[in-house]
Design a protein that fits this description.
The model has no long low-confidence stretch (mean pLDDT 89). The protein has two domains: 216 residues, no CATH class; 65 residues, no CATH class. By secondary structure, it is of the alpha+beta class. The chain has twelve helices and 14 strands. The termini are close together.
Length: 303
């Protein structure tokens, strides 16, 4: 489940380890830099970018790719612990005590249709800004980002090795990125590397990954049927049909420009809510049923 991590080990924790002498010697493509805080070095351990200087050591990159040599596979809790131990041995410092500054949690799903077939069905998510692109959907705020994208297309664009098992498959990736103020988000004094493979923490973070998915409003499809229409019903039915043709996300994007025209913010919210509850928009998409089921299977990775 884990992918990109950003770890920080402060100088106070490792000042007796002589890390400034040892670490640069084991890195690839090392470069030296000068700052007001003194010299520091940057280089790589495989795909992981490592920087070290007078203030400490930072490690940034996909822990999944570091362990598996690609990030198509799923990183387990046990493999995360083994990776942290391996880094500790290589750097001669205790990486398990490092502060975690970023966590990406992700999984790749083989799905029935092309990934972009699912994007229009993923609607708004409270407290997030939604941005849809040709090959991805982003939801972002100041603390987190959740995104869905075509993993095969992304891998090809970066000239990455794609394992044979994924060849000619439709692969949709769902990521949740914790990018800021992690202690506040996890309601703790600090988040350490050893927390990543603590069982309770791991179960909680997977549960939240699932919860964040289900908090996304799923757009329903237009369902034609026979009705004894009143004038009001007919207007709603016509609006439902138009939304079905244009797409709910596009309609909501259009009406976003009207928000200053409403008498109150509450009226604006009521209007948007009414657009998602029109009588004609009643059919659940089988693609969302498929995705809901696949997301829930991730609880299998608790252990």
């Amino acid at each position: 489940m884990y992918d990109t991590l950003k770890l920080w080990i402060a100088n106070e924790e490792i000042k007796d380890s002589r890390y400034l002498i040892k670490v640069p010697t084991i890195l690839n493509n090392v470069s030296e830099h000068q700052t007001e805080f003194g010299n520091y070095y940057t280089g790589y351990l495989d795909n992981l970018k490592v920087s070290c200087g007078e203030t400490g050591i930072s490690i940034n990159g996909s822990i999944n790719k570091y362990w598996h040599q690609n990030n198509f596979n799923t990183m387990t809790k046990q493999q995360t612990e083994l990776s942290v131990n391996k880094l500790s041995d290589l750097l001669s410092v205790e990486v398990s005590n490092s502060d975690v500054k970023r966590i990406d949690l992700a999984h790749n799903f083989i799905v029935n249709e092309e990934p972009n077939s699912y994007y229009n069905l993923l609607g708004a998510s409270s407290r997030y800004n939604r941005l849809e692109q040709s090959k991805s959907v982003y939801y972002s705020n100041k603390l987190r980002t959740k995104l869905f994208y075509n993993k095969i297309a992304e891998g090809k664009s970066k000239n990455e090795f794609i394992p044979k098992v994924w060849t000619n498959k439709n692969v949709l990736r769902y990521e949740l990125r914790y990018t800021s103020r992690l202690p506040k988000q996890f309601n703790t004094a600090h988040v350490k590397a050893y927390d990543l493979y603590n069982e309770n923490f791991y179960i909680d973070i997977i549960d939240n990954w699932i919860k964040e998915y289900f908090e996304i409003k799923k757009n329903k499809l237009f369902t034609p049927n026979n009705m004894n229409l009143t004038n009001k019903d007919a207007k709603e039915y016509l609006l439902s049909a138009l939304i079905g043709m244009i797409g709910q996300n596009e309609v909501l994007k259009l009406t976003e420009n009207w928000k200053d025209k409403f008498s109150t913010i509450r009226e604006s919210h009521r209007f948007k809510k009414s657009l998602t509850e029109l009588k004609g928009l009643t059919e659940e998409s089988p693609l969302i049923d498929e995705l809901d089921t696949k997301i829930l299977t991730i609880k299998e990775y608790y252990r």
